[in-house]
Fold ABC transporter ATP-binding protein.
Amino acid sequence: MTAYISVRNLTLDVPYYVQTAQAAQTARSWGTTLVGALFSPPKRRFARILDGVSFDISAGSRVALLGRNGAGKTTLLRVLSGAFQPTRGEVEVAGARQALLNLGLGFNPEATLTENVFLRATAMGMSPAEIRGMVESIFEFSELGGVAERRLSTLSSGQRMRLGFAISTSVQHDIMLMDEWFGAGDASFVNKARARLTDRVASSQIVVLASHNFNMLRKICDEGIVIERGKVAYIGEVNDAISAYKDIYRAVPMSEKRSAA
Ligand SMILES: Nc1ncnc2c1ncn2[C@@H]1O[C@H](COP(=O)(O)OP(=O)(O)OP(=O)(O)O)[C@@H](O)[C@H]1O
C-alpha cells in the first residue's frame, strides 16, 4: 500500500475545567471547599489546540515538525496516530502507523512483563500467533528476559522504557510518528535503540518527527512543517522550515520565550 497523510482544516478543541473565583475564595478549608464546590462547581471551558491545520504528506517524505513549546506538535502527532479525533476537519491516513509518543502507554503495572508484551502487541493489531513468535526477540532486545515473569511494577522506569521501545519497534510500519529522537537509557542501549530506529526510519514510507534538535532534523528530514499557536505557519523544505521557525522565535517577546522556549 502506498502511504499518505491528508489533513484538511483540522481543528481540535479540548475541554478543561476552571474553578470560579467565588469557589476559589471560599476554598480555605475542607468544609468551605465542599460548599464552594456545591454552589459554584468548576466550569467547563474549551481550549483550541489546533486551528484550521491543512497539509499533505506523500510516500517517501521525512517531515520535521517544528514549533515552540506548547505550539501543538505532540497534539498533532496524536491526531495523526488516531488517538485524538478532530473536533472539525478531516484527517485521512493510508498505511499502518506506529506512534513512538509515549512508550509506557497501555502497560498494566500489575501484569507480568510477558503479559504486558501480549497486551501492547494486541493493541498494535497483532495476532496471538504473531506475538508468540516475537516474544523472545523482544526480551532479547530489551535485555529483560531474566525478569519476564515479574510484575511490571517491579521494574525501574528505564527498564519499562526499554520494554516499551522493544515492543513498539518490533515490527516495521509504513508511517512512523515520533516525538523527539529516542535518547534515554544507558549508553549501550541508546546505541542499540538508535541503530534500530535508523533502520525503521529508512524502511518507513513516511516519517513525521517533532524535535527542537535542528542538526538531527536536517540529517533525517527533507521537509518541514512549522506550527505556531496551533496553526500552520510554514510548510516547505526542511532548511527553510528551520529558518521560518527561527524567525518566529526571534519575533516572540522575551516574556513569552521564558514560558515557552
Ligand atoms: N488535554 C489537554 N487539555 C488542555 N490543554 C492541553 C491538553 N493537551 C495539550 N494541551 C495544551 O495544548 C498546547 C499544545 O500542547 P502540545 O503538547 O501539543 O505542544 P508541543 O508543541 O508538543 O510542545 P513541546 O515542544 O513542549 O513538546 C499546550 O498549550 C498544552 O498546554
Notes: Residues 187-203 form the longest helix (17 residues). Residues 52 and 154 are 44 Å apart (CA to CA). The chain has a mean pLDDT of 89.
